[in-house]
Structure formats: C-alpha cells, structure tokens
Amino acid sequence: MPLARQPPMIVGNWKMHGVTADLAEMGVIARELLERPTSTEVVICPPATLLATASRCLDGTGIATGGQDCDAKDQGAHTGGVSAAMLVDAGARYVLLGHSERRRLDRETNVDVAAKAAAAFRAKLRPILCVGESAAQRQAGRTLAVLRRQVLRSCPPEAGAGRLTVAYEPVWAIGAGATPAPADIEAAHATIREALSRRYGDASASIRVLYGGSVDGANAPQLLQIAGVDGLLVGRASRRAVQFLPVVRAGETAPPPLDYLPTD
Ligand code: PGA
C-alpha cells in the first residue's frame, strides 16, 4: 500500500545559546511563516530555560518546540534533571536525544540514549534520536558499522515507530563548515533505514531520517535532494531568522522521498 508523503522536517537546535531577548528571532520566524505558510514541518529546540515561553510564543503558529535532552527517569532525586513529562508540561512535542555533544561530553552511551528515548515515549514526547560517526571512525572505514550499531542499540524496542525521528549527524561535520559527499550521505541514510527496518519492520517506513552537520541556507537545497534525506537538523543557522528561514523554504521544494511516492 503506498504511503502518504510526509513533508520534510526542519529542526533547529539552539544548543546552549539564547536568553529571553533572543525569543525575538523566534517571533520573526513565526510571523514570516504565518504570512507565508510552509509545507515543511518546523521544530525549534531552545534551551530548557526558554522552552515554556517559546512554546507559548509559538502556540498556534504551526511551529513545534522540543527539548534538547531528557532524563531516563520519570521523576526523582536527580538534582538538575529534567524529565520528559516536564518538557511536555513546558509545551514541547519533541526532544533531541543522543546528540554527539552529549554522547561525547556527558559520556552518554547507546544504552543511556535508549533509556531516555523510552522515557520520552512514556511521556508521549517524540524523540529525535541522533547518530553519527566520529572523524576517527570515518577514517577507519567504520562509518556504516557505527551507524548500524547506534541505531540498533539506541532505539528502544517499544518505540511507536510513528513517533520516532532519527538524525544522521557526522560528528566531524558539526560546527565545522564541512559536509560529507552526497554519495556518503546517501549510503549512511540507506544504512540507517535498513537498521530501522530490522528493528521495527514495516512500521519503520514512517520514520523520517534527517541529515545534520553544518546545514545552512546555501547547502540545504542540495542536501534535501539526496535520496533518503527526509529533513534537516540545523545548529548554528537556526538561531537567526535570516539564516533559518532559507533552510525552511528549501524544504518546500524538496522532492518527495521515493519510498513515499504513490505506486499506482
Ligand atoms: P551545526 O550543528 O549546524 O552548527 O553544525 C548541528 C547540530 O549539532 O545539531
């Protein structure tokens, strides 16, 4: 049975940047998209301190918000912890999990990420689960094996596949102004999709696989043409409306992924 085409998803990750004054940028993005609506699905993940205010500001604009991490526990004695339910309470629909900065700087393992994703599902939050190889793994020719392993071990078995998104972010491309060759991105996405299909069977067809790592308005159109790229995860270029809006608009001209084309 042919699947309905899903629009590309464009996700902005503000990381540890932004204070109340920066919400003005979100206001600009929202106004522009209200004036000229977009067919893409737009999500902005501000720091936790701005999440509730950002969610209120964006309410009714069609732009969803997301957290940047959540705890694996639902509640408890963990000073500084933020649970998935707290993110939902602050208005979030999504949560980034397993970002390479957290895997590297906070020593998060695949098992930790799977536990966090399970917590997100319990709270009815939609995880955007990040995977990606390091420069050393790439040089050693291990990219596809690393991705396969990260997907199989970080995606919890209980995932309602319809609520999961995966983001391929080569660690060496993040913040570096470099992106992999299109053929390498295509191979990575095909490997991730294969692993998702092993994990979730037919239900995996509805999981979008995003590309992230030095995405900007200039390279977004080409990246979205690559087979298997269902959207983009944007860091630096997501914090200013003037940089983020061209990425969102690029999503409007992206071809439908072949998998989603009607067959009759
Ligand atoms: P970048 O970050 O777009 O600044 O490279 C992407 C990310 O880390 O999600």
CATH architecture of the domain at 82-230: Alpha-Beta Barrel
Number of helices: 10
Please identify the structural class as seen in this structure: alpha/beta
For the largest beta-sheet, the strand count, sense and barrel status come to: 8 strands, parallel, barrel
Tally of strands: 8
Percent of residues in helices: 25-40%
Any idea what the CATH superfamily of the domain at 82-230 is called? Aldolase class I
What is the H/E order? EHEHEHEHHEHHEHEHEH
- Large-scale geometry: globular
The ligands bound in this entry are:
2-phosphoglycolic acid
CA(first)-CA(last) distance: 9 Å
Classify the fold: give the CATH topology of the domain at 82-230: TIM Barrel
Write up this protein.
With 264 residues, this protein is an alpha/beta fold. It has a domain of 149 residues: Aldolase class I (TIM Barrel, Alpha-Beta Barrel), CATH 3.20.20. 39% of the residues lie in helices and 14% in strands. The protein contains 10 helices and 8 strands. Helix 3 links the parallel strand 3 and strand 4. The structure holds 2-phosphoglycolic acid.
